[in-house]
Design a protein that fits this description.
The chain is built from eleven helices and two strands; from the N terminus they run αααβαααααααβα. It is an all-alpha fold and 305 residues long. It has one domain: NCX, central ion-binding region (A middle domain of Talin 1, Up-down Bundle), CATH 1.20.1420.30. It has a two-stranded antiparallel ribbon with strand order 1-2. Helix 1 runs antiparallel to helix 6, helix 2 packs parallel to helix 6 and helix 3 packs antiparallel against helix 9.
Length: 305
């Protein structure tokens, strides 16, 4: 048991590190190609924070444990809202939003959560539904970059080092994700726990670490919009890309723990998040409420075993 826990923990650490290397190199290459920083932010960075979830989900499909995919996505979305934003509100004392989150962002987030709920509640995820998710993702990205122009001046040169780091980071991500799944399967078999339950908790928490680091760091610097926007973008990307892409590789198993607990909790936590942000701020007390809901979620999940 300890061996498999160590394998998962070490592999997850390499996965997070390699994801950072990959995304930093991709960002530099993007700038050298004249892509504006804003477009890089809503595409490459959004992809980067969800890269651990995507890598582990693809590895899970190839390992024959496709039930991990939905657990990873749903668990990460719940963790991002309840744990990440809860901790961010505590660290930042109060999150003040200097933009109207209800104009575009919050409706898109609630819409993605509702769409995910409707698609998975019958314990199936069809190819057509995967295509719909990807179309929705393209629409989200187009809306995000609308009106932005590429930078034609002051482009940094593409360095061979950045290309090498991009390839090396991608390679480490591939193997680290594979060993993460090996560890999860071993833990699940020895502890007699379904892999989807582990993915809803341990894997979701681990793959959400980039969001934790980015959001808390942003809150400490007073960049509250970045802290909240990081969670918004990551959850939308998780729902549309991390859920859809593995479906093109194989059928996905949607476990009972997902339909009976994960999906309802994700939808409720998203709606609670929306209600809290109507006032354009998230107070410390509201942050504590989010953390309390996360504790209830973990408790309910393990009570159902």
């Amino acid at each position: 048991m300890i061996t498999f826990i160590l394998i998962s923990a070490v592999a997850l650490g390499f996965l997070l590190f390699a994801s950072d290397v990959f995304i930093a190199a991709a960002e530099k290459i993007g700038l050298s190609l004249g892509i504006s920083p804003f477009i890089i932010g809503v595409t490459i960075v959004a992809f980067g924070t969800s890269l651990p979830e995507l890598a582990t989900s693809i590895a899970a499909v190839y390992a024959g444990t496709s039930e991990i995919v939905a657990g990873n996505v749903i668990g990460s979305n719940i963790t991002n809202i309840l744990l990440v934003l809860g901790l961010t509100a505590l660290v930042g004392k109060r999150i003040n939003l200097n933009f109207n989150i209800w104009e575009i962002d919050m409706p898109l987030l609630i819409g993605s959560a509702l769409l995910c709920f409707l698609m998975l509640r019958d314990s199936q995820f069809t190819l057509l539904e995967a295509v719909i998710c990807l179309i929705a993702l393209v629409g989200f990205l187009i809306n995000s970059v609308k009106g932005e122009k590429t930078e034609k001046e002051d482009r940094p040169k593409t360095r061979l080092k950045d290309v090498g780091l991009l390839l090396l980071g991608g390679l480490i991500v591939y193997f680290a994700a594979d060993y993460t799944i090996v560890g999860i399967k071993g833990i699940a078999e020895l502890a007699d726990i379904d892999p989807d339950v582990i993915s809803l908790t341990f894997v979701a928490l681990g793959t959400s670490l980039p969001e934790v680091v980015v959001s808390i760091a942003a809150a400490k610097r007073g960049k509250h919009a970045i802290a909240v926007g990081n969670v918004l973008g990551s959850n939308i990307f998780n729902t549309y890309a991390v859920m859809a892409i593995p479906r093109f590789l194989d059928d996905l198993t949607i476990a009972d723990s997902i339909t009976q607990l994960g999906l309802p909790f994700m939808l409720v936590s998203t709606i609670v998040f929306g209600c809290i942000t109507i006032s354009q701020k998230i107070s410390r007390w509201e942050g504590l409420l989010l953390l309390l809901l996360y504790a209830c979620y973990i408790g309910e999940l393990y009570n159902s075993l």
